[in-house]
Amino acid sequence: MIICVISDNDHDVMHHAEIAVGHYGSEALGGIYCAFRDVIPSLRDNEDLIIMAYGTAGDSDTGPKIGNFDAGFSVTPDELFKNLESIFPSSWSGNTYVEAGSSADAVIDPDPNLHQLSFIEDFGLAITDCLKNSELRIFGRSGAFNADEILPPLQDRERWIQAEIRYL
Prior knowledge:
It is built from 4 helices and 8 strands, in the order E-H-H-E-E-E-E-H-E-H-E-E. With 168 residues, it is of the alpha/beta class.
């Protein structure tokens, strides 16, 4: 299943999702939905979740956020999880992929003694805490979002960075 985190005027991310489904097939990726807008069905027990957005930003006060910052639309990992919480069955064991620029990169904090989480680390904590499953895996990307690039194969471990979920 693909969930896009977009404002009403964003078309590149939705187009990117449509290209991915056209390339890999709906059997592999499922349907496309928009967070905060669509009624989203529950994930199947082992279905992978793909979240798409333009990019990731944040600071030491807000933590990481994804969205389209030029359009004034962004969400924290907690806000996104609260919106999507109902789609996760208690037996869910799929992987999560966050296709958003720098989703695997930690927010830089001016205090070198503080470690800020990346978007995928923070979102992964919310999922594993809710489902009480420490075996779930979440992956993200480093660097800028490229709407012209086809979604990398989900099995391509060189292009997806796995979050290290650190329980605090």
